[in-house]
Amino acid sequence: MTGLPAPISLRIAHTEKIAADIHLFELRAADGGALPAFTAGAHITVRSPNGSLRKYSLCNDPAERERYVIAVKRDPAGRGGSVDLVDNTRAGDRVEVSAPHNAFDLAEKAPAFILIAGGIGITPIMAMARHLNGEGRRYKLYYLTRSAEHTAFRDALAGDDFRGKVVIHHDGGDAANAFDLWPILEKPSTAHVYACGPRPLLEAVRDMTGHWSPTAIHFESFVDAGAAARPEDKPFTVVLAKSGDRIVVAPGISILEAMRERGHEAPSSCESGTCGTCRTRLLAGEADHRDLVLMDDEKPGQIMICVSRAVSAEIVIER
Ligand code: FES
After folding, report:
1. What residues contact 308, with CB distance under 8 A and at least 6 apart?
2. pLDDT one-digit tens code per residue, 26-55
3. Which burial class, exposed, middle or buried, applies to 279 when counting CB atoms under 10 A from its CB (0-12, 13-18, 19+)?
4. Sign of the Cα pseudo-torsion (266, 272, 277, 279, in order)
5. Residue 270 Cβ contacting ligand 1 at under 6 Å
6. Helix (H, G, I), strand (E, B) or coil at 166
7. Residue 227 pLDDT > 60, yes or no?
8. Residue 224 pLDDT > 60, yes or no?
9. Cα 285 to averaged position of ligand 1 atoms, centre (Å)
10. Best of 1, 101, 196, 277 to mutate for ligand 1, by most ligand atoms within 8 A of CB?
11. In the prediction, which pLDDT does 191 show?
């Protein structure tokens, strides 16, 4: 993420710790007026006091036009943006945010929805459930967390609006106690599935839905190229076939970011390997695929340049 285009300055109207390490922020315009509209599943990018830019899903009902509500997991093991935002801001402060962007849209015409949230992945799913409540649409929400203390929005989800629509499961931090999603996903239906959470949960959902229509399965992860960096990552060269430009991609930045730094643009949306917008033909070399979009038979010839890297010293892509 290289900048914050057309930033909007908002006031932190309210903050509250709503679960272990999860802090809610309510953001409003200084004059209390309407904010740019958003749809369920959208996120905003927030600049924390130290300048870090992080994406946070909006978790309030999109019908609310005068506030954005985000929930931030304070992650000391992260890159510092969440800790800075939680520790160094308070109600009354101003923060700069982007306009909302949605790479995790609800299929409005779907007859029913299966919503699966792991941990802080509940945030876009809350907006979806609230929107669907408002529209009287059919859904079931499966919310998987470590413990009651790690479960944000417990009070809201215990309310009348959500009665009979929510299953909350705690695994106690033990994978052996993970909720079994197979009985829910075994038989494909006309429902659309929306899953947001940690990578292993998304991979489990992907593996259990291989026999569903791919257009009915939707993922969002918060893993951008920097957060997805692995200590063993090495630099590699990406060759852009159309221009012949050769670009070295350093560890910690994505092919997409490296291209942008050299003045090349490419379409993107989620920048976390889940939406498919940056799909690019791979003409030579071997990719290190880190997305949740490509099927196995697509992997030799395509690459998601927002998160994936290279196994070979050099790859050639059709850009
Ligand atoms: S921008 Fe969404 S998969 Fe790359």
Report:
1. 255, 273, 287, 288, 289, 290, 291
2. 999 999 999 999 999 999 999 999 999 999
3. middle
4. positive
5. yes
6. strand
7. no
8. no
9. 20
10. 277
11. 97
N-to-C CA span, the chain: 20
Q: Give the up-direction half-sphere exposure of residue 82: CA atoms within 13 A in the CB hemisphere.
A: 19
Per the listing, tokens 């599943």 go with 41
- CB 173: neighbour CB atoms within 10 A? 10
Provide the 3-class DSSP secondary structure of residue 81: helix
Q: What DSSP element (H or E) covers 54? A: strand 53-57
Predicted confidence (pLDDT) per residue in 166-206, tens digit: 999 999 999 999 999 999 999 999 999 999 998 889 989 99
Backbone angles phi, psi at 44, to 5 degrees: -120, 155
Per-residue pLDDT at 69 exceeds 60:
yes
Check if 278 has its Cβ closer than 6 Å to any atom of ligand 1. Answer: yes
How far is ligand 1, taken at its centre, from the CA of residue 161, in Å? Answer: 34
**For the CA of 271, the nearest atom of ligand 1:** 1
State whether the beta carbon of 225 lies less than 6 angstroms from ligand 1: no
Return the amino acid letter for 185. L
How far does residue 148's CA lie from ligand 1's centre (Å)? Answer: 33
- The answer to whether the CB of 18 falls within 8 A of the CB of 156 is no
Q: What is the pLDDT of residues 146-160, one digit of tens each?
A: 999 999 999 999 999
